């Protein structure tokens, strides 16, 4: 996030924030309201057409969006809270989770449909915490994870009261070192995590080695396959080699896979799988100690529309195994064209060995070291050319970079992207090196994030151009360079305050 407004045409094209409403206005005709929604969407990054290389997953298949919308509409008013009242909900979920388990599980695997990868991760961590408490007597649980594990695991640890134990990854391969992960395990470890692949760099952790180390100590192992879970198996079907990563790997006890990524369903649709029903039981919440109806929630949500379940069910059955295999092959072919071309660009370094669909690269300066300013200015330069590449800041020894998510739609744009990228890299590398305002960086770095008052936060944000009272800056490099220079806790505080300023009510 915080990648800047989408301005491929004019810098002021994005609509200004609307004033906070005091009350509902008089009713208006449906066509007027839909027209206003379409006008608001015009200021966003496009979700179709292959020019947005993050956040969206476009299969490029005609009619798929219409099918998903129609399936959602059929079930939009159905409450997924109680499958005894709406038994078709259980049928759809059994079909959907069963298909995922058949592709990624083992006999006896059980799971649930969730609203997205974050909910799937929350449930996996909850199940592991409760399992460790019930089976091993762990009262102060730890979560061991590589530094490249998704932020959702830190969110889960924060929400659920686990101590996050972070293991640095190899700064060259960006993979989690299995030996270091094994050394971090203790009697308090409830769960260890591996990524297939990691979001930040698109590389596959050594799942088998990490899972074996966990199993040797009786510890659960979760594989975050939210990105790769519905891509890598079909990539393997094209004849390409893919390291084992799913529940068939000894020691892997749970796995998450997002169907709104390479399943091409609408957001949000994900599945959490467990090796058996006994593990899944620790995910559930049941409560009968109140005067209302008995509550049983398999997932975090209670009341929820069954529309998202229905559209995911329809999309998966429409595309089918052969369709997903063909789409995976198109992405792999695009990566075959993209990665060597990136490596051939002067001053560009691809990070690690991409597992297939995610690619991260940095831009170097004259000394050959990654150059933060040039990385971030390149993101701005590409956005001005109509492309969104996701900027990622440095983290310890891991360099700043630009992240690209390949889909069938973006794959069709690889040559056009490379032409603009070559031009933009040349211009950026010829420019003078830049750095954040040293006075502001020094001032901000001396602030205590836990003692900042609202006025101090507002002053720093306003100086950085993030005061929340107008459109975002059209060039985000100066803002992101300042953030990169700040301590993590201060960075988090400012980001939270900035996002809070966007939601004024």
TrEMBL record:
<keyword id="KW-0808">Transferase</keyword>
<dbReference type="InterPro" id="IPR015424">
    <property type="entry name" value="PyrdxlP-dep_Trfase"/>
</dbReference>
<feature type="region of interest" description="Disordered">
    <location>
        <begin position="1"/>
        <end position="29"/>
    </location>
</feature>
<dbReference type="InterPro" id="IPR015422">
    <property type="entry name" value="PyrdxlP-dep_Trfase_small"/>
</dbReference>
<comment type="similarity">
    <text>Belongs to the group II decarboxylase family. Sphingosine-1-phosphate lyase subfamily.</text>
</comment>
<protein>
    <submittedName>
        <fullName>Aminotransferase class V-fold PLP-dependent enzyme</fullName>
    </submittedName>
</protein>
<keyword id="KW-0663">Pyridoxal phosphate</keyword>
<keyword id="KW-0456">Lyase</keyword>
<dbReference type="InterPro" id="IPR050477">
    <property type="entry name" value="GrpII_AminoAcid_Decarb"/>
</dbReference>
<dbReference type="InterPro" id="IPR002129">
    <property type="entry name" value="PyrdxlP-dep_de-COase"/>
</dbReference>
<dbReference type="Pfam" id="PF00282">
    <property type="entry name" value="Pyridoxal_deC"/>
</dbReference>
<dbReference type="GO" id="GO:0008483">
    <property type="term" value="F:transaminase activity"/>
</dbReference>
<feature type="compositionally biased region" description="Pro residues">
    <location>
        <begin position="14"/>
        <end position="28"/>
    </location>
</feature>
<dbReference type="InterPro" id="IPR015421">
    <property type="entry name" value="PyrdxlP-dep_Trfase_major"/>
</dbReference>
<keyword id="KW-0032">Aminotransferase</keyword>
């Amino acid at each position: 996030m915080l990648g800047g407004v989408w301005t491929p045409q004019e810098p002021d094209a994005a609509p200004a924030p609307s004033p906070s409403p005091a009350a509902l206005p008089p009713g208006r005709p449906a066509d007027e309201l839909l027209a206003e929604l379409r006008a608001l969407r015009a200021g966003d990054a496009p979700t179709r057409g292959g020019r947005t290389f993050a956040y969206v997953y476009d299969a490029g298949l005609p009619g798929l969006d219409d099918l998903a919308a129609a399936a959602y509409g059929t079930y939009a008013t159905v409450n997924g809270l109680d499958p005894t009242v709406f038994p078709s909900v259980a049928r759809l979920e059994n079909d959907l989770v069963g298909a995922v388990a058949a592709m990624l599980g083992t006999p006896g695997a059980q799971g649930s449909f969730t609203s997205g990868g974050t909910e799937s991760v929350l449930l996996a961590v909850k199940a592991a915490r409760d399992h460790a408490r019930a089976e091993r007597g762990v009262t102060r649980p730890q979560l061991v994870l590589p530094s490249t594990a998704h932020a959702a695991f830190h969110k889960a640890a924060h929400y659920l009261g686990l101590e996050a134990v972070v293991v640095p990854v190899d700064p060259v391969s960006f993979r989690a070192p299995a030996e270091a992960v094994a050394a971090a395990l203790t009697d308090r470890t409830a769960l260890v995590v591996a990524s297939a692949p990691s979001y930040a760099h698109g590389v596959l952790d050594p799942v088998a080695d990490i899972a074996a180390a966990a199993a040797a100590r009786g510890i659960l192992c979760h594989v975050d396959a939210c990105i790769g879970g519905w891509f890598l198996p079909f990539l393997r079907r094209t004849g390409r080699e893919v390291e084992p990563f799913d529940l068939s790997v000894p020691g892997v006890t749970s796995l998450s896979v997002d169907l709104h990524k390479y399943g091409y369903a609408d957001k949000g649709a994900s599945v959490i799988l467990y090796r058996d029903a006994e593990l899944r039981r620790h995910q559930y919440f049941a409560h009968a100690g109140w005067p209302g109806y008995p509550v049983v929630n398999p997932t975090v949500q209670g009341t929820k529309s069954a529309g998202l379940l229905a559209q995911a069910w329809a999309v998966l059955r429409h595309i089918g195994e052969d369709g997903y295999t063909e789409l995976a092959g198109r992405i792999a072919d695009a990566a075959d064209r993209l990665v060597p071309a990136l490596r051939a660009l002067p001053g560009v370094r691809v990070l690690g060995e991409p597992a297939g669909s995610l690619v991260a690269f940095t831009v170097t300066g004259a000394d050959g070291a990654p150059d933060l300013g040039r990385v971030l200015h390149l993101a701005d330069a590409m956005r001005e050319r109509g492309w969104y590449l996701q900027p990622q800041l440095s983290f310890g020894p891991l360099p700043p970079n630009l992240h690209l998510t390949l889909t069938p739609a973006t794959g069709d744009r690889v040559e056009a992207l490379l032409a603009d990228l070559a031009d933009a890299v040349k211009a950026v590398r010829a420019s003078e090196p830049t750095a954040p305002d040293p006075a502001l960086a020094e001032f901000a770095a001396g602030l205590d994030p836990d003692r900042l008052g609202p006025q101090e936060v507002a002053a720093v944000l306003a100086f950085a151009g993030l005061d929340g009272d107008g459109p975002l800056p059209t060039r985000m490099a100066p803002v992101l360079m300042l953030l990169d220079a700040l301590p993590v806790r201060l960075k988090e505080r400012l980001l939270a305050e900035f996002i809070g300023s966007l939601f004024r009510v």
